[in-house]
Design goal:
3 helices; four-stranded antiparallel β-sheet; mainly beta; disordered N terminus; elongated
Length: 656
């Protein structure tokens, strides 16, 4: 209802309520006529300055519909088929374009459109239909066909192109590409033939040069020159040791930076390590030739062996070196017997005869008899004397990685009595009761099962790069040592173990394979066995003397056995926490957290602790790197394992 105010002649405002209904209707018609530009007869006095709809605009102000308050020059144009802003245009710039969709496929005909405020029935906003009479054809493919399936494209996406896909899925215009089947019959596959012509999956290539000789005992055989002797992991083993027509020469550099100018010369043939830590060659020249090793720097890193096809070492040494392969000159060794005064082969030590030092066995060689003219005068000996009868046998042998092994036997003043490498067999005569044994390992991982015997005494280096024993104020060794062997199965790189006393103190640790002895083993001990993969020891067992452990360790990542009826908790009044790191370099930032207490290994391979907090608490192990090396266990004072695991780990001790 509009409110129309009229002004009386006397200036008073008169409202519509002052008029009858008929008067109002007549007034409405008059206003409409005025808006249309017409005046009714007798109505020339209609006031066009009246705001009929109360929107603030009169007819004279430009209100094109003074009966609709939503219409005025100040109104906003909306899409409603009305000229809202009185500019003479209806719904300008507000209409949308819609396209006929005859086949109802959602795509419109670009040639048939309509403008409207809202989408009419049968219309769509899309105008890309290439055939609006076929619902299956609505767009042009890359072959310029309406409703086509791009059938003209080649594998490279080129219309009517010539590229084709081969069996390997390669798209190439050249049909003579290099797509081939691997040994497993897969086109473009990565399987390959190993040294034994077994078809092996490509993932096994990661095993090359991983520190373990893959000689076919576990899945793959890389022990041949085609695979560079498993990246040198099988160096000197099996096929990589074959030298049927001569002698095998193996050369090593403990630092791994080549021989730095040193050369091993056997007769007229010369050999060296040009790069890396090792090399091998085959000597096919004559015997009874001079052997030297010299000419470069860092000679303490150099070692080498010369072996026959049976693996017997004929000569070994370091740098500098000068000796003989076989017998050199005369009737053998310059006219001397081929064996020394004790009947030993002294090949390589011929130059000691008459060198100004009496070789009476102190260094394992005996020239102090008439056959050698008392070491050509270096020794004072009676006719027929063949050296001292008070001699002890010295041997160094029994393990692996012998090129890393060296040793010295000194008197208590530090003077060297005898030194050498491994393997070694000789004697010392007139050895004092007081002497010192110094053991070295150039790699720093112990002697790997090698053992030195001096008479009845036994010495070895369990770990590290140095050990000292003897009677000059040190340890004289044990009179009884127990052999320890870990071997017999597969996946040996997963294996680690500890032998502890009944108080949890670690006596010996290692992996597999392992051959060695313990001279500190009491009747009571515990064997802690670990498997980093969690599938048991895969047939490997540990023998300690006559006892065998690990036969039942067929699953999981931890097992324990031994001769301790229980584990003495010592000062621990709570639970015993045992931590292990298979690599031996600490836990690298990982922590075992039990409730509010934390445990870790800062350095080394083992650590133990005592948890005295409550039960039913969360247990986590996380926070650092190299987590595959980590194992741990929580035990009660009777040795029962309550919880064990690795990293990362999250669980509960008890019930949480």
């Amino acid at each position: 209802m509009f409110a129309l105010l009229l002004t009386a002649c006397n200036g008073d405002n008169i409202g519509l309520e002052d008029y009858s209904a008929d008067d109002v209707d007549e007034l409405q018609d008059d206003v409409t006529s005025v808006q249309d530009g017409e005046a009714q007869d007798g109505d020339d006095d209609v006031d066009v300055d009246v705001d009929g709809d109360g929107d603030g605009y009169t007819i004279n102000d430009g209100d094109c519909d003074d009966t609709n308050p939503d219409v005025s020059p100040d109104a906003t144009e909306t899409c409603d088929d009305i000229d809202n802003d009185c500019d003479g245009e209806i719904d300008e710039e507000l209409l949308s374009v819609f396209y006929v969709d005859t086949d109802a496929d959602g795509y419109g005909d670009p040639a048939s459109s309509s403008e409207a405020c809202t989408q009419p029935k049968g219309y769509v906003t899309n105008n890309t239909d290439c055939d609006d009479n076929n619902a299956q054809a609505f767009e042009i493919d890359e072959c310029n066909e309406c409703g086509g399936d791009n059938s003209c494209l080649d594998c490279a996406g080129t219309p009517n192109g010539s590229a084709m896909s081969d069996e390997c899925g390669n798209c190439d215009e050249d049909p003579s590409n290099d797509c081939v089947q691997d040994c497993a019959g897969s086109w473009g596959g990565d399987s390959f033939l190993d040294c034994s012509n077994n078809c092996i999956g490509g993932y096994a290539l990661e095993w090359i040069d991983d520190g373990y000789c893959d000689d076919g005992s576990v899945y793959a055989d890389f022990n041949c020159e085609d695979f560079e002797c498993d990246g040198s992991d099988c160096f000197g083993i099996g096929m990589c040791a074959d030298c049927d027509d001569g002698l095998l020469i193996e050369m090593f550099d403990s630092y791994g930076d080549s021989w730095n100018g040193n050369d091993l010369v056997v007769g007229t043939e010369s050999y060296t390590v040009e790069t890396g830590s090792e090399a091998m060659a085959c000597y096919t020249g004559p015997m009874d030739v001079v052997v030297t090793c010299d000419g470069g720097s860092w000679q303490n890193e150099v070692s080498w062996t010369i072996s026959d096809p049976n693996g017997t070492i004929l000569l070994n040494g370091g740098a500098p070196f000068e000796g003989c392969l076989g017998t050199c000159g005369g009737n053998g060794n310059g006219g001397y017997p081929s064996s020394d005064c004790q009947g030993q082969d002294y090949a390589g030590y011929e130059n000691w005869i008459g060198d100004g030092s009496c070789d009476d066995g102190i260094y394992g060689i005996y020239f102090d008899c008439d056959d050698f003219n008392c070491d050509e005068g270096d020794c004072e000996c009676d006719s027929g004397e063949t050296g001292s009868e008070d001699c002890v046998v010295v041997t160094v042998d029994g393990g692996s990685w012998q090129t890393e092994v060296s040793w010295e036997i000194t008197d208590c003043d530090g003077n060297t009595i005898l030194d050498g490498y491994a393997p070694f067999s000789g004697e010392i005569c007139d050895l004092s009761d007081d002497y010192e044994v110094l053991l070295y390992d150039s790699y720093g991982d112990g002697w790997n099962g090698n053992i030195m015997t001096i008479g009845d005494e036994i010495y070895t280096l369990d770990e590290g790069d140095f050990g000292s024993f003897g009677t000059c104020g040190g340890d004289t060794g044990s009179e009884y040592c127990t052999s320890i062997v870990v071997n017999g199965g597969s996946w040996q790189t997963e294996i680690s173990w500890d032998i502890t006393d009944c108080n949890g103190g670690v006596i010996l640790s290692g992996g597999a394979p392992f051959v060695g002895e313990s001279c500190d083993l009491d009747d009571g001990y515990q064997v802690e066995m670990y498997d980093s993969y969690g599938d048991g020891w895969n047939g490997n067992v540990m023998t300690i003397g006559d006892a065998v452990y690990g036969q039942d360790f067929t699953t999981g990542e931890y097992d324990s056995d031994g001769t301790c009826d229980d584990i003495d908790s010592g000062e621990c009044s709570g639970l015993i926490v045992q931590l292990s790191d298979s690599y031996g370099d600490g836990w690298n930032g990982n922590y075992l957290t039990i409730g509010g207490e934390t445990f870790t290994i800062d350095t080394g391979s083992e650590e133990s602790g005592c948890y005295t907090g409550p039960m039913d608490v969360p247990v986590t192990c996380d926070g650092g790197s190299w987590q595959s090396e980590i194992t741990w266990s929580i035990m009660d004072t009777s040795g029962n394992i309550l919880l064990s695991g690795g990293a990362p780990y999250s669980d509960c001790l008890g019930s949480c």
